[in-house]
Amino acid sequence: MIGLVTALSSEARPLVDAFNLKKDQGTRRFDLYRSDDLSLIVSGIGKIKSAIAVTILCQKFELSNLVNVGICGSRNMLRPVGQALAVHKITDATTGRDFYPELLTDYGLEEGALTTFDRVVTEDTPLEPNVELIDMEASGFFEAASYFLELDRIHIIKVVSDHLNVNHVTREFVAGLITRRVDDLRRVLTLLPAPKAPLFSPDELLDINRLVAHFRLTSTQQYQVLDWIRTSKVKGKFTVSLLEEFARTQPMGKSATKAILKNLHDHLV
Predict the structure, then answer these.
(1) Average of pLDDT values for 78-100?
(2) What SS3 string covers 210-236?
(3) What is the per-residue pLDDT for 205?
(4) Does residue 223 have a pLDDT over 70?
(5) Is 2-191 assigned to CATH 3.40.50.1580?
(6) Residue 216 Rama label (left phi>0; alpha psi -120 to 50; beta)
(7) Contact, 33 vs 23, CB < 8 A?
(8) For residue 6, which of 38, 45, 37, 34 has the smallest C-alpha distance?
(9) pLDDT of residue 251
């Protein structure tokens, strides 16, 4: 499933209509919409709210990609209102931290660098010379998303709404901007990295569960063993026969279990 995050309901509504998304009643604090292969959450304004929404979406669904869609201001008058851009760099204006989405695919959009502020920026706001595109969510979105997904699966698409003269930016105006860029977003979604194949086969999962049950491990030990197995699988060292060998061992007490687990760790990792 692909996850979409917007800050505003006026940004979300054209996407909900275009992709025929239905309201999900299972989330109270945020508006959430979904279909079989697409989910959209409305975070509200601000990087903290965006980060929370990302976390909720990633915990609720198994996502192959996350896309932040929304409006931004532009200090550059050569960026026309209504232009859609793929963001290749995000700077948090408060912390000074930079984040870099890995744009491995050409989306057919111009690219731009975005700065996330904690407050509304206007024509009178003092700005550093390198600030061009401006929003209030992207750094929070990206930092939270990076805990769940690889960087080439985190995407930010922004539509220029103003040149820091925000008085005309109404709900209807924003909805119109996003509506005119639905086809661009539809194309982007078709170009996103494909979902990865499951790390383990169903038979392997059965063997893993059998091993864990056999040793009657504590919760901490279970997490440790599963982490070792995942690491071993990624390295190409994992085999079912290895698990079967250890599953035939009958531990006698806590110290024996710890010794067996150490031996298992050494073989896996």
Answers:
(1) 96
(2) HHHHHHCCCHHHHHHHHHHHHHHHHHC
(3) 75
(4) no
(5) yes
(6) left
(7) yes
(8) 45
(9) 61
Q: Which pair of tokens denotes residue 193? A: 């990295």
In this structure, the chain runs to a length of 269
Crossing angle of the two packed helices 47-60 and 138-145, in degrees rounded to 10:
30
CB 212 within 8 A of CB 260: no
What are the backbone angles phi and psi of residue 256, rounded to the nearest 5°? Answer: -65, -40
Q: Which two tokens stand for residue 222?
A: 């279970």
Query: Strand 22-23 and strand 65-74: pairing?
Result: unpaired
The model's pTM is 0.75
Residue ranges covered by each domain of the chain: 2-191, 202-268
Instruction: Give the per-residue pLDDT at 219.
Output: 64
